[in-house]
TrEMBL record:
GO MF annotations in UniProt: oxidoreductase activity
Organism in which the protein naturally occurs: Lujinxingia litoralis
Residue intervals of the FAD/NAD(P)-binding domain: 9-284
Taxonomic path: Bacteria, Deltaproteobacteria, Bradymonadales, Lujinxingiaceae, Lujinxingia
The name this protein goes by in its record: FAD/NAD(P)-binding domain-containing protein
Top-level taxon of the source organism: Bacteria
A Pfam family assignment: Pyr_redox_2
InterPro entries membership: FAD/NAD-bd_sf, FAD/NAD-binding_dom, Ferredoxin-NADP_redctase_2
Keywords from the UniProt entry: Flavoprotein, Oxidoreductase
Length: 300
C-alpha cells in the first residue's frame, strides 16, 4: 500500500456506539484518532434505541449525532464517511484503504464495524423487519406489551425465548417453522400455556409494515401483532480476510478487547452475541483504555 504522510494513533473502522465511545476516551487522552464509517448500522430501520440510560427512545441516527456532538470538543478526533475495503499490517503500522480513495496509516486499529445479518427468505419479512418483526425482546418487548406475539425457533432457543416473551405478553405462541417439536420443548410449552404450530411460515401479512397475520404452509392463518425471530449473522468480509480467530460469527477478544493480531482491537457487535448499544459502548471504552495504555508504553 502507498505510504501516506501522516500516521494516526488509532484508526477506528465503524462509527456506531462501540466506535464513538472509544473515540471519546481517545479524544480525552489527546490521541489522534480517525473514525471511518460507512454509515449503515444494522439498527438503522428501528424507531428508537432502548435501554441506554439518559437516551431512552432516541433514534439510531440521533444517538450517533448526539455522541458526535460531544466529541467536537476534542481536537485530535476526526470522522470521515467512507467504507474501508482493505487492511494490512506492514512495517509495524496498520494500513487501510477506502472505497472512496483514502490511504490511511495508524499505530493501532480498532474494528467496531458491527456484523452482517442474514435475513430469512420469508415473503413479507423485509418490510416488517424492525417494525413488527424483531429479534430482541429487551429492545422491543415493551413496545408490543400485552399484544399477541409469536417467536420462531426450536429446541433450546424455543425453550428460552417463548417463556421470556411472557414477561411482556400473556398471549405467546411458538412457531417451529417446519422443525419437529421435541419432547422437552413440548413439556415447557404445556407447563407455561404456550400454543405452538410446526408448519413452515410462508408469508407475513398486514398493512404497510404492520403484522396482522402469519400464514403457514398448512393453510393456518395466525393472528399476531409482533414476531420475534433471530436472523443469522456472519462477520464482515474484512474481518474474514484478516484471518482473525472467530467463535461462530464473532471475533475472539480478550478481557480488554485485544484480538490475536498485533495492535488490533475489536469491540461491539462484531465480538459478541449480547448485542446492545450500552454493551457496545462499554466494549469501546475498554478497547480505548487498552489502546492508550499500549501506545503509552510501546517503544516505537
Ligand atoms: C433492528 C435492531 C434494533 C435494535 N435495537 C436496540 C435497542 O433498542 N437497544 C439496544 O441496546 N440495542 C439495540 N440493537 C442492537 C444495537 O443496535 C447494536 O448492539 C449496536 O448498534 C452495536 O454497535 P456497534 O458499534 O458494534 O455496531 P453498529 O452500530 O452496527 O455500527 C457499525 C458501523 O460500522 C460501519 N461499517 C461496517 N463495515 C464498515 C467498513 N468496511 N468501513 C467503514 N465502516 C463500516 C457500519 O456502516 C456501521 O455504521 C438493535 C439492533 C437491531 C438490528
Amino acid at each position: 500500500m502507498m505510504q501516506g504522510p501522516e500516521v494516526l494513533d488509532v484508526l477506528i473502522v465503524g462509527g456506531g456506539p462501540a466506535s464513538l465511545s472509544a473515540a471519546l476516551y481517545l479524544g480525552r487522552a489527546r490521541r489522534r484518532a480517525l473514525v471511518v464509517d460507512a454509515g449503515s448500522p444494522r439498527h438503522a430501520p428501528s424507531a428508537g434505541v432502548h435501554n441506554f440510560l439518559t437516551r431512552e427512545g432516541v433514534t439510531p441516527a440521533g444517538f450517533r449525532e448526539l455522541a458526535w456532538a460531544d466529541l467536537q470538543e476534542f481536537p485530535t478526533l476526526s470522522r470521515v464517511e467512507a467504507r474501508v475495503t482493505a487492511l494490512a499490517f506492514e512495517n509495524d503500522l496498520w494500513q487501510a484503504r477506502t472505497a472512496q480513495g483514502h490511504e490511511l496509516r495508524a499505530r493501532a486499529l480498532l474494528l467496531a464495524m458491527g456484523t452482517v445479518e442474514i435475513p430469512p427468505e420469508i415473503p413479507g419479512y423485509a418490510e416488517r423487519w424492525a417494525k413488527s418483526v424483531h429479534h430482541c425482546p429487551f429492545c422491543h418487548g415493551w413496545e408490543v406489551r400485552d399484544m399477541p406475539v409469536a417467536t420462531v425457533g426450536h429446541g433450546e432457543f424455543a425453550r428460552h425465548m417463548a417463556p421470556m416473551l411472557q414477561n411482556w405478553s400473556d398471549d405467546v405462541m411458538l412457531l417451529t417453522h417446519g422443525e419437529p417439536l421435541d419432547a422437552e420443548t413440548r413439556q415447557v410449552l404445556e407447563a407455561r400455556g404456550i400454543a405452538h404450530h410446526t408448519s413452515p411460515i410462508v408469508a407475513l401479512e398486514g398493512p404497510g409494515s404492520a403484522l396482522h397475520t402469519i400464514v403457514l404452509q398448512d393453510g393456518t392463518r395466525v393472528a399476531r401483532r409482533a414476531l420475534f425471530m433471530k436472523p443469522g449473522q456472519r462477520p464482515h468480509d474484512l474481518i474474514r480476510e484478516l484471518g482473525l480467530p472467530l467463535t461462530g460469527a464473532f471475533v475472539e477478544v480478550d478481557a480488554m478487547q485485544r484480538t490475536a493480531l498485533p495492535l488490533l482491537w475489536a469491540a461491539g457487535d462484531c465480538t459478541t452475541g449480547f448485542q446492545q448499544v450500552i454493551e457496545a459502548a462499554a466494549q469501546g471504552a475498554r478497547a480505548a483504555a487498552s489502546i492508550i495504555m499500549t501506545l503509552t508504553f510501546s517503544t516505537d
